[in-house]
Write a structure and sequence with these properties.
It is a single chain. It is built from 13 helices and four strands. The protein has about 300 residues and is α+β, with helices and mostly antiparallel strands. It folds into two domains: about 1-55 and about 165-305, no CATH class; about 65-150, 2-Layer Sandwich (Alpha-Beta Plaits). Strands 2-3-1-4 form a four-stranded antiparallel sheet. α2 (about 20-55) packs antiparallel against α7 and α9 packs across α12 (about 275-280). The longest helix is centred in the middle third of the chain and has 47 residues, at about 160-205. The model has no long low-confidence stretch (mean pLDDT about 75).
Amino acid sequence: MLATLKRIIKSGWLGLRRNGMFSIATIFVMVLTISLVTSFFILQGLSNFLISSLEEKFDISAYFKKEVLEEEIIKIKEELLKIPEVKDVEYISREQALEKFTAKYKDNAQMMESLDEIGDNPFFASLNIKAKDPEKYEEVSSFLGQSTFQNIIEKIDYYQKKTLIEDVFSITSGIKKLGIIVAFIFGVLAILVVFNTISLAILNNKEEISIMRLVGASNWFIRGPFIAQGIISSLIAILVTLLIFTPVSYFAISIFSFFSPKLTLIFASGFHPYKFILSNFGTLLLIQILVGIGIGFFSSLIAIRRHLQV
């Protein structure tokens, strides 16, 4: 059995070499397909990282009227923390809000002059609320908007931030959908190329196949080399893809800064493709193998069923 398998693999390799430019074209298209899947995998990681980072920065604030006592605000904070959707609530007093504003704009003479002209602390005490899921902010906002709190809450800034929250998730969702569509198109293209290559190999080896039939070769022995060709093409394509992506991801910051310095802001936030690939190498390799060998195997199988009646 092992000897037969070795012969099949060897025959598949020789057949792949004999096909010359057709084999190169097959591997090239498969490299494009696997590269696209790899890019989509990295893009998914980047998307999840950005969403996670933005979720940490997202919050909504409830601003209380100046006459409201701190004790009342603390009670509302405690009520909010009992809500399952709420992750954290931070109380910011009027004095703290003034200190933050002063620290932020201390070098802006115009802003500081405007503050001096007002003469009094213009800021409201507030509760900054973080939800466990961005989709839950509307529920939190509805809770604060009930009639019980209308007399003490000056405003809730949820609706000013709602558009930004929705836009971020709409963009990331759109990128994911586009990636899936493009990957699917290249997958179909790869299947067609492998199918045509194997079909051509079968047609070019009709005499050998006839002789093998006459001497009593098994169906598996006849079909095996063509399936092996598809799988070997996939393995070569996976190797080539890894050889391309490893150095490209390692020097990604330099490459992106050359084309557009603004793109390096993505990496400045803490995400790096090379580190992401290393930490998820097992998962990435498994996906590449499933996609690559899946395309090579099933394309070969379809071509054999179409052209090789054994």
